[in-house]
């Protein structure tokens, strides 16, 4: 069990069974079934605290402070929202539904940031009405919509402007969000005119520019170039009127396999602070308040998905090699990332250890798609068998958040574990839940 991949409180117990925060995999499966997402609560909270403390410390050294927003799109429920705000983080939401979850958790609306490339008029109105924090403007049409909503509710709404910096982050094409030909943000060349338009509205308060160059990024080169371009724009805008903040976004990478090398949080914070400090010094401007939006780096490593193995099949590949397929009772309905952009994961047998020589296996899901692969390549003991519990770590980000009902598979529950105790924080769906939305069915007792 590579420690950089698994949650910090995961380990093999004395009998070889994987335990998470003191709760054995077999006990979790017996109580909650499979698939099941298992969140190491203390680990998630510790990672959030570590990011906040590291960035606070690093940026205090250059004379400024940091606002940390937990990116709720990675995984959001009321418990997670409470964990994040309790340790001092704000919450970033990207839809009316995410906003509703955060508000239901008791998060003060002013601690929410609101993203999205196509916010509806109704969403904007609701956000302004409840007193939301900064709204990130993603297109010109939103300026008028937000200004009108703020005037209607007799308030001044804080806004940021999302800038497409043109930085090509070193990540998968679908995860790079600052390239020129895509849906997010305003080109650098249009930014100053757009800010002037924002500033012309008395119901809007322009607090700064925003950038997000992508996700699952392992080095700081992209952030350095984005910061350089953004701070040059920031300096020009500040010459006209004060611009108190600069939001650098998130996208910090995590280890999904043993070959991934994520930057330690403290090192990342110091590197970004050094970059910002150097650029501000070069431009002769004060260092603004910095905002960041980590999500995956907090919740991703904290969560493990448990499956039960079903069919085991040896498949002849190109007439020579044999690939062992291990099919589990979930797949692209609970983790869409491998099918969406070939994301890599690790896996282990969780209910036992074995001294049988390892074999190269492919862990497949149960859905009617050839691309329904959970783990493309992993070594497991050659005696892997049906009914073995298969644990896939680092599934906290975009696992449950992208879950779906393909093939009418019910979404799994999310269970939090801490101090050898487990509790459900998101209930799993039942067959009755699935049928209840079908207007052509009248449920009365046994649906069969």
Structure description:
The structure is a single chain. The chain is an alpha/beta fold and 448 residues long. It folds into 2 domains: 10-33 and 302-436, Lyase, Ornithine Decarboxylase, Chain A, domain 1 (Beta Barrel), CATH 2.40.37.10; 41-299, Alanine racemase (TIM Barrel). The protein is built from 12 helices and 21 strands. It has helices spanning 25-32, 41-60, 78-86, 96-104, 121-130, 140-152, 188-199, 221-238, 265-283, 296-299, 337-341, 431-436; strands at 10-12, 18-20, 23-24, 36-40, 66-71, 90-93, 112-114, 135-137, 157-164, 186-187, 204-210, 245-247, 289-292, 303-317, 321-328, 348-349, 358-364, 373-381, 389-393, 414-418, 421-426. Strands 4, 14, 15, 16, 17, 18, 19, 20 and 21 form a 9-stranded mixed beta sheet that branches. A hairpin with a 5-residue loop joins strand 1 (10-12) and strand 2 (18-20). Helix 2 (41-60) packs parallel to helix 9 (265-283) and helix 8 (221-238) packs parallel to helix 9 (265-283). The longest helix has 20 residues, at 41-60. The chain is globular, with a radius of gyration of 23 Å. The two termini are 44 Å apart. Residues 170-179 have low confidence and may be disordered.
* Average pLDDT number: 92
Question: Over the alpha carbons, how many angstroms does the gyration radius reach?
Answer: 23 Å
CATH architecture of the largest domain: Alpha-Beta Barrel
| CATH fold name of the largest domain | TIM Barrel
Fourth-level CATH superfamily of the largest domain: Alanine racemase
Number of domains: 2
Topology, number of strands: 21
Strand content: 15-25%
